Amino acid sequence: MESNIIDNQKLNVNIQLRPGSAAAEIKLNPGQEFTAEAGAMIAMSQGIQMSTTTYKKEFWWNYERYKKIAFRRKFFLNHYKAGQQGGTVILGATHAGDMFVKELNGENLIVQGGSYVASSPDIEINTNWQGFKSLISKEGLFWLGIKGKGTVIVNSFGAIYPVVVSGEYIVDTGHIVAFEESLNFNLTKAGKSWISSILGGEGLVCKFKGQGTVWVQSHNTTSFGNILGSRLKPRR
Amino acid sequence: METTNFKGFNFKMECQPDYGFVTIDIPSGKKLKVEAAAMATMDTNIEMKTKMKGGLSRLLSGESMFINDFKANNGDGQIQIAPACPGDVKHVYLSNETIYLQNTAFLASSETINVETKWQGFTKGFFREKIFS
Lengths: 236, 133
Known about the structure:
Strand content of chain B: 35-45%
Distance between the termini of chain A: 61 Å
Number of helices of chain A: 4
CATH topology of chain A: Double-stranded beta-helix
Number of strands of chain A: 15
Helix content of chain B: under 10%
Number of helices of chain B: 2
Strand content of chain A: over 45%
Order of helices and strands of chain B: EEEEEHEEEEEHE
Number of strands of chain B: 11
Structural class of chain A: mainly beta
Number of domains of chain A: 1
Number of domains of chain B: 1
Shape of chain B: globular
CATH superfamily of chain A: Mitochondrial biogenesis AIM24
CATH class of chain B: Alpha Beta
Oligomer: heterodimer
Helix content of chain A: 10-25%
Strand order of the largest sheet of chain B: 1-2-7-4
Radius of gyration of chain B: 15 Å
């Protein structure tokens, strides 16, 4: 039975169709569970039970010291449990892009909210990680703190590219998929002045310091949306 | 026009043909012109400056009015850039030639390449971008 417990911490993931539009095929042992982002499931075999939980994301942002604005966002997670025969679940991603699998061993990983796909049950998902508070209001992103022992699956828009940071490195905020919490970070402007940073289209960038890995996505949804949005017909 | 010989800065293209993701090494003191908002990551010794290029016609053709100059200070720097839309990227080396690009197709070029936008009039209904070195 002991081997079974160890097995349940790890997911048997096979990522297909990389890097264009990846789909993760997860093979479950009998009784094995895992958690996935709502709406990520493409197909599953029979006998798998699904239940949904809601996480409320809420945080306060001090505005001119006295006004406070609350941001609320609901975050749904689906829990899958295999029946007697085990089974297979295929998960897809919201954006066309790659996926990566990371085995965590107690360390903390910060993942962009929309990039999270699935994780094994012993992984703790903290929806109230607020290290990037100032960033969220601008880019419309939120961040998840992921901790524990087991497997995490993360997806991106475009290809995923791991950058091993030793020293300093700059990443555009819209391109961050995930990073290890061992890294220190601060938000800065891309150019020398704020005007140049905003007009140049880069806006805020994140300067990482220390030792650790940042996973970068080759494309960013904001730029793609800007191009696509101007060509769409207005709604009637 | 050469598309096979890799002259100019050292670069590496990845994730082709689904996504264009280009890693470019900028030698110390040199500059690279990059389309606005295309930068994904860069070394900390690279300095960004925004310049207005092409004026109003560039804006009308659906591009940003601005081009970013990335300059490597104190040693070589590495920058990674990606276009906004998924799709392939291609390297073209120009020696005093002109290439016409569809609007929004420009991604990056060396400092000595001139980027212009041409207004073709309403009848022709498309815009041209002229590059020469």
